[in-house]
Specification:
The complex is a heterodimer of chains A (357) and B (362). Chain A has 357 residues and is of the alpha/beta class. Chain A is built from 14 helices and 13 strands. Helices cover 48% and strands 13% of the residues of chain A. In chain A, a hairpin with a 5-residue loop joins strand 1 and strand 2. The radius of gyration of chain A is 25 Å and the shape is globular. Chain B has 362 residues and is mostly helical. Chain B folds into two domains: 291 residues, ABC transporter involved in vitamin B12 uptake, BtuC (Orthogonal Bundle), CATH 1.10.3470; 35 residues, no CATH class. Chain B is built from 14 helices and two strands, in the order H-H-H-H-H-E-E-H-H-H-H-H-H-H-H-H. Chain B is globular, with a radius of gyration of 21 Å. Classes of the chains: A alpha/beta (357), B mainly alpha (362). At the A-B interface, helix 11 of A face helix 3 and helix 7 of B.
């Protein structure tokens, strides 16, 4: 008896696994059922593609995928015939499209923000689940977001199942994921690393070209430049030494030179107090005391104990003069057109006057 | 699991022919002197360049003396509010970890035992990770240490209860329960990390898991000074019992040691001490494992000498490595947890190689 009992206990892990599988498959089954036929076709084609030539097969897949966006596709059918574009992505790889992308999946927040303004919700079949988080996303309150059916992570299975004709991933996306997406015949554009506003603008233009909206991309960049020019004009009117500013994140991480934050501070008319350091660096408290910046910009994750209520920093000029601000990180850490709003934010922190429109 | 660090004769060790009381005085005296020296060097160096004489004046001013010289307030804050408490917290944590490590190696008669083996570090880490990922860290300075300490003691208690056989805890079961709970808690931590969408939060968690003394001010020092000194001090009283435990459970019992009760007391003290240390700096690896072994190779396995020497040696090790962590890339800094392993591991391997004949188990 007791031997039998012991044997049965070995079955417990399997029973648990069955339970978990049973529980999981129910919610997951619904979307899968809706899309079941389409998915199967695409999977078949994806296998064929490996054997045959890629380009025609991809076109076929794209044509079939047009069903949900039929109207838009119909109008631009003529244009589509001639559509062929090759751009270089952030990793230096060429991305070629032979048809205007109509089912675009964005798997990184930066392109969520860029694409929503560039192509609108009609051609976006997925954005990241970060897009609706107002602390880091600039599009969290946009009503169009609800028209986009899927909120994804950089998960190849999830993305391939959506039958995208173009996928955007981040520079830090697992190369194995990119490999799998490309293996399934999906063109992948990898975002680069950005250390200046210029590089962000250049990237928007590149993406505009890739998705067939170069004019719209130029409009977006022109809007950014208009904002930046307004700030620059106001900075030029300011008198005296430009104030020094330090961007401080939780754990003592500061933005040195060659970061977008450095570019933001400079364009807002300030001097980055940590410009001697290159890139992001963790510094000790005494380094911050030594820098003694006029203005401290805190990431929202810095706790009061860490800075505002920390006795160590009580003598800092920025603390004494009450020039410590909490940043809107959605603006300051943006790699999209919204980074221009970060320049406005910082200008207002540095000079305590609003940006005139 | 034979007495792994049993050695061939004790004559090779430092001052082996001297009486134990004398050895304690000499060895601890030397270690204490070196420790004070390193503390002074550490207090005088950093990204901010302040001469030794000014550092001395600033410390005196901090103690309430008039020095007659006007030095900037920023320098006063750097020496008295940044460097000094950080050095002292480092010393306390190093002492706690090394002493607990030596104790664990004695209880389990296993050279691989470290303070983390019974789940203290993993429990403390999970507590801290929960506090960070739920955003409770923002509520008060004490949330993180509190969660971490509760996690550390909770995990250890669980491991201890799981290992009870007829009311007594068996080392082998304790060890296995500890290993299993460690990987379970590790999995929970990984899951929380992976589900966290917020990059700064992930960075805060990772940085805590490596262990850091950055930003540890006086508040942290006063929080752990009493528990660490009390628990470490109490461990010293068990030095003779730990020597006897090294002979094996039955021999120790025969020589008058109440083995189950002693084991419980030692586990509890080591867990409290480590829990307090981990809760303010994170699970700094390597100190509890390596410092006692380094010392054993030089001064031998006698716990009457090994425990106080471990306390001082652990303090010395952590203050030194943290000074390196602060200075090596200045004005940027590394986390001390990286340096302890980066410096400690090669040095330990060197000692092992030099003494490979001395250690029978290898």
């Amino acid at each position: 008896m007791s031997h039998k009992k012991r044997l049965y206990t070995l079955l417990i892990p399997f029973l648990l696994l069955m339970l978990v599988l049973g529980a999981c498959s129910q919610p997951a089954a619904q979307p899968a059922e809706e899309e079941a036929p389409a998915t199967e076709e695409v999977m078949e084609e994806a296998t064929e593609e490996v054997a045959g030539e890629e380009a025609p097969a991809a076109e076929e897949a794209a044509e079939e995928a047009e069903a949900p966006a039929e109207e838009a596709a119909g109008e631009e059918a003529v244009e589509e015939e001639a559509f062929s574009v090759t751009v270089t992505d952030g990793l230096g790889n060429e991305v070629t499209l032979d048809a205007r992308p109509m089912r675009i999946a964005s798997a990184t927040l930066g392109t969520d923000e860029i694409l929503l303004d560039l192509v609108g919700p009609e051609r976006l079949i997925a954005v990241t689940n970060l897009a609706s988080d107002p602390t880091i996303s600039n599009i969290a309150d946009r009503p169009e977001l609800e028209q986009i059916e899927n909120q994804v992570e950089a998960d190849p299975e999830q993305i391939i199942a959506l039958e995208p004709d173009l996928v955007f991933v981040a520079s830090f996306t697992d190369p194995a994921v990119i490999e799998q997406l490309q293996g399934a015949g999906v063109p992948v554009f990898v975002m680069g690393f950005f250390n200046s506003i210029d590089s962000i603008e250049q990237n928007i233009l590149t993406i505009g070209e890739l998705v067939g909206e170069p004019e719209r991309a130029e409009e977006i960049v022109a809007d950014m430049n208009a904002t930046l020019d307004e700030v620059a004009a106001q900075v030029a009117e300011m008198e005296g030494e430009p104030p020094t500013a330090l961007y401080l994140s939780s754990g003592g991480w500061v933005a040195g030179s060659a970061t977008t934050v450095d570019d933001i501070i400079t364009r807002a008319g300030g001097v980055n107090a940590a410009a001697d350091l290159v890139d992001w660096n963790q510094v000790s408290e005494e380094t911050i005391i030594e820098m003694d910046p006029d203005v401290v910009i805190l990431s929202p994750y810095v706790t009061d104990e860490e800075f505002v209520d920390n006795p160590v920093f009580a003598g800092l000029s920025a603390v004494v003069n009450e020039r410590v601000f909490v940043a809107n990180d959605a603006h300051l850490s943006a790699v999209s057109q919204y980074v221009a709003l970060g320049v406005e934010d910082v200008f207002e922190m540095l000079y305590l006057v609003p940006v005139s429109e | 699991m034979s007495s792994a660090l049993a050695t061939e004769g004790t004559t090779r060790f430092l001052l082996a022919s001297q009486p134990i009381s004398r050895r304690v005085v000499v060895v601890c005296g030397v270690l204490a002197l070196v420790l004070v020296g390193v503390m002074i060097i550490s207090a005088a160096h950093g990204p901010a360049n302040i001469p030794y004489a000014d550092v001395a004046r600033l410390i005196l001013r901090g103690l309430g003396f008039q020095t007659g010289l006007e030095l900037p307030d920023s320098q006063f804050a750097i020496v008295n509010q940044v460097r000094l408490p950080r050095i002292l917290v480092g010393a306390l944590v190093g002492a706690a970890l090394a002493c607990s490590g030596a104790t664990m190696q004695g209880i389990f008669r296993n050279p691989l035992a470290d303070p983390g083996i019974i789940g203290v570090s993993a429990g403390g880490s999970l507590g801290a990770v929960i506090a960070i990922s739920t955003g409770l860290v923002g509520e008060s300075l004490w949330m993180l240490p509190l969660f971490s300490f509760v996690g550390a003691i909770g995990a250890t208690t669980l491991v201890y209860l799981l290992s009870l056989v007829r009311g007594q805890s068996q080392p082998a079961t304790l060890l296995l329960a500890g290993v299993a709970l460690n990987s379970f808690l590790g999995a929970l931590i990984s899951a929380i990390l992976l589900f966290s969408n917020r990059y700064p939060e992930v960075q805060a968690i990772l940085s805590w898991l490596i262990g850091s003394l950055r930003g540890r001010g006086w508040a942290y020092f006063f929080a752990i000074v009493a528990p660490v000194i009390l628990t470490t001090g109490l461990l010293f009283f068990f030095a003779r019992d730990m020597n006897l435990l090294l002979l094996g459970e039955e021999s120790a019992q025969g020589l008058g040691v109440n083995v189950p009760r002693t084991r419980f007391a030692l586990l509890a003290l080591a867990a409290l001490s480590t829990g307090a240390a981990v809760s303010v700096v994170g699970p700094i690896g390597f100190v509890g494992l390596v410092v006692p072994h380094m010392l054993r190779l030089v001064i031998g396995p006698d716990y009457r000498l090994l425990l106080p020497a471990s306390a001082l040696g652990g303090a010395l090790f952590l203050v030194t490595t943290d000074t390196v962590a602060r200075l090596i890339l200045q004005p940027a800094e590394l986390q001390v947890g990286i340096i302890t392993a980066l410096l400690g591991a090669p040095f330990f391997l060197y000692l092992l190689y030099r003494n490979r004949r001395l250690i029978r188990v290898l």
